[in-house]
Specification:
Length: 473
């Protein structure tokens, strides 16, 4: 199996190699040739559609990885009538799920409570449990490391385990965002090396996850799915499985098309978020309210989509996914300057916001050292308790390093740890004396009226007006 640290093959210029890959030279086969060869026109083994009854019982689906993608996926499959085996090697995560201590939409909490009462919904830490399933869906994290290099350890381990336990007639669906070619490298070729013909004896597809945490308008059952199988039968089996969890499915010709579609989606968002942040700074240069400018531009009924500026980008999509594309392109000695610049700007945004906070204090004649700063909202987006890649964490770290006394208030995040220090959310921030409030994340129903006559406010979301805050910086 390849890892993120593999040296790309010189002639193919791809960041992956597996034992079964044919190594080409200047005249050797490329990836397109290998891909075409791996997709047989007709299967030689039969399999019932996963949505159909199999042997008088409901089809069983194993969901590998029960994080922010895997758990909602498992609940959607269960609600669609499937028996579900949720597999996660983290004991604490399984306990949190069993006790309901998980970050889900209210409707999903109801589904979880119902599922936990059903013998047809089972949780386990045993990876071998996938061997009993008709279908396996892999939903593990694909983060980047501190150098923004893809960290494929969890994905490689999960795929390796699924391959080792695969049985004839089974459907394997990968949903984790990764580089173009992942499905073939981590599932198709290892299955073939085991003697199982992918697309014929074992069915394989890629169907990128589309989870928008905290947004009920974008719940899984309201969001179309893209599916690309290694054979027509693989595509149809995956479509049948996921059709009950989405309003529609969009079939594409190959896993690679589906993989690239996911990278395109989130790279598109990353570039536009970086642009929105830059244009917001341009507006401030002219003493204009970015919010009003965006609302005006958004009245155009074509050719424009509003993106909102903020303190940066969090979660494991926008800050991570485009780096999988850039990493793969660099290995091919191909540049993507616009995407590269956007990701650099996104990475630098929290430091810029911390600098703006320091400038706001200086404008009041205060040094950063000894000043009392409150960060309002630390989750990476409204309505969730998710701290992954939250810009607030770097902002807190920088202001603390500069000598400020930094507190935070967030009803969804009661505590957090930064560099060995445990911080607790301030329950009644309006009762304390702050030199500056940095508005980072505004959760639904957050009270903001106390800012009208209180401390100076740095609103990097541009959601508040000067009239609303009284002392906007």
């Amino acid at each position: 199996m390849h890892t993120a640290s593999n040296t790309p093959h010189a002639s193919l210029k791809t960041p992956w190699r597996t034992a079964s890959t044919t190594e080409g030279n200047a005249g050797g086969p490329g990836r397109a040739d290998r891909c075409a060869a791996a997709a047989p026109a007709e299967p030689v083994a039969s399999a019932s559609l996963p949505s159909q009854s199999q042997g008088g019982r409901r089809a069983t689906v194993a969901v590998v990885g029960l994080g922010y993608v895997g758990l909602p996926t498992a609940l959607s499959l269960h609600a669609a009538g499937h028996s579900v085996v949720g597999v996660d090697t983290s004991g604490p995560r399984l306990e949190d799920i069993r006790s309901g201590r998980v970050d889900l939409l209210p409707a999903q909490h109801g589904r979880l409570a119902s599922a936990l009462r059903d013998p047809g919904f089972r949780l386990t830490a045993d990876p071998a449990a996938v061997a009993t399933a008709d279908s396996v869906i892999i939903c593990v994290p694909t983060p980047v490391d501190e150098r923004r290099t893809p960290d494929l350890r969890a994905l490689t381990a999960a795929c390796s385990s699924a391959v080792s336990h695969a049985v004839p007639g089974q459907l394997l669906v990968l949903t984790s965002t990764s580089y173009v070619g992942t499905t073939r490298d981590l599932l198709v070729e290892p299955l073939a090396a085991r003697g199982l013909l992918p697309g014929a004896e074992v069915f394989v597809a890629f169907a990128p996850e589309r989870i928008d945490p905290g947004n009920p308008a974008h719940s899984p059952d309201r969001t179309p799915r893209v599916i690309g199988g290694v054979s027509p039968r693989s595509t149809e089996l995956a479509a049948s499985l996921l059709a009950g969890t989405a309003p529609s499915v969009h079939r594409v010709d190959s896993p690679e098309v589906a993989e690239m579609s996911k990278l395109w989606e989130n790279t598109f968002r990353a570039v536009n978020i970086a642009l929105a942040n830059e244009l917001a700074e341009n507006c401030l240069e002219f003493a204009l309210d970015p919010r009003q400018v965006i609302e005006a531009a958004a009245t155009k009924p074509y050719g424009f989509m509003p993106f909102r500026p903020g303190a940066g980008v969090g979660g494991h999509c926008i800050p991570c996914d485009p780096h999988y594309l850039l990493w793969q392109l660099r290995a091919r000695e191909v540049t993507s300057p616009l995407v590269d610049a956007a990701m650099t700007a996104i990475a630098e945004r929290p430091a810029l916001v911390a600098g703006k906070a320091r400038d706001a204090l200086a404008a009041r004649g205060l040094g950063t050292r000894g000043s009392r700063v409150l960060v309002l909202g630390v989750a990476y987006k409204p309505g969730v308790a998710d701290l992954r890649e939250s810009p607030a964490l770097e902002i807190i770290d920088r202001l603390t390093a500069w000598g400020a006394t930094v507190g935070y208030t967030d009803p969804l995040v009661p505590r957090l740890e930064r560099r060995g220090t445990v911080l607790h959310s301030v329950d009644a921030p309006e009762t304390l004396d702050w030199d500056l409030v940095v508005v980072h994340t505004v959760h639904p129903c957050t009270a903001l009226d106390w800012l009208e006559s209180g401390p100076a406010v740095l609103d990097v979301t541009h959601r508040l007006t000067t009239a609303a805050t009284g002392a906007a910086v």
